[in-house]
Amino acid sequence: MDVVYPRCAGIDISKKDAKVCVRIQGSGRKRAASTVTTWGSTTNQVLALREFLLDNNVTVVVMEATGDYWRPSYYPLDERLEVLLVNAQAVKTVPGRKSDVSDAAWLADLGAHGLVRGSFVPPRPIRALRVLTRTRTMITRERSREVLRLEKLLEDAGIKLSSVASDLTGVSSRLMLDALNAGETDPVALADLATAGLRKKIPALTEALTGEFTDHHRFMARLLLDRIDAISGDIARLDARIGEAMEPLRGAHDLLVTIPGFSSKVADVFIAETGGDMGVFPSAGHLASWAGTSPGMHESAGRSRSSKTRPGNAYLKGALGVAAMSSTRSKGTYFSAKYRRIAARRGASRALVAVEHAMLVAAWNMLTNGDLYRDPGADYFANRTPAKTKDRAIRQLQALGYHVTIA
Fold this sequence. Notes:
- The structure is a single chain.
- By secondary structure, the protein is an alpha/beta fold.
- The protein is 53% helix and 9% strand.
- It is built from 16 helices and seven strands.
- A hairpin with a 3-residue loop joins strand 1 and strand 2 (17-24).
- Helix 10 (264-274) packs antiparallel against helix 12.
């Protein structure tokens, strides 16, 4: 097998140290020489390791993406060396020979022969933006959990507010909850605090607010509401910080929000996870595969087996799921027509993934060409194959007992 990198290093990283194997290809019939050393995980040790690798004229370094422990080693080494961060799933070592030293030697051997591909690691500004958007996602989920705890507390008190008001943290709901915490127990007075469209439901609110709200419930409700307010404040701070970090990428952000279903937050996540530079991905298909919205391939003995999508970027897939659900509820758009067309044959889950894939393809082309989104329209599939559309309509009418004549 051809040697692509005559001087290659493999690093097996743990929390406390790293095993480093430097592989130097021999000349002629001379075998390759490998030297394994152990280095600490502190910054000074990593910098010393970098000088050691440079002194040995190493041209490429291969390391596994092990939790978050790869970060302190990757960033300093990447400043002066070519570093390939590889998925552990793609570099499984030989069974029965598992150790840190053998892992480092295996990585060096794979890297020397060009058998590994480096993962996408964005530049420093995008990494900072990615931390902000991921933190906002996690904190938003925690806020939802606190709201669910509040709902359970109200159920325990016999207060069925959530069955009438869709949002327990909305303006009307907060007025009623604050009044309950203040000692108000009259359902009529509590229901009268409703505002805007919820006032049409005052009779239902009066029934729902009849319960036994004790001092224990007041204490717990106040505690949960304070936690919800604190988390909401943190989300607002993150929103402001993300807005500042997004300014250099405002052009890409403004393009993405023209896609149906793409809110400002979905666009934030897309840019944070992909970097906004589509030059990293050779084609729209590469982007879709990296995100985990493309069907897999498993063919053996001429037979195709499971083709389920492979794991991709969880944060990007989560944001795309929200965007896809939103777009399928719209009327007269290409995405809603695509969803209905596939859902009727293959189910809602596969249809959503197909819409996510279509969104990624659109985003890749828009950011590559700098064009705004142009919707093909809900009649796109009907116009593409008019004969099939006509035959399908005829069959549906005949199934209902009609005699159809085409004029």
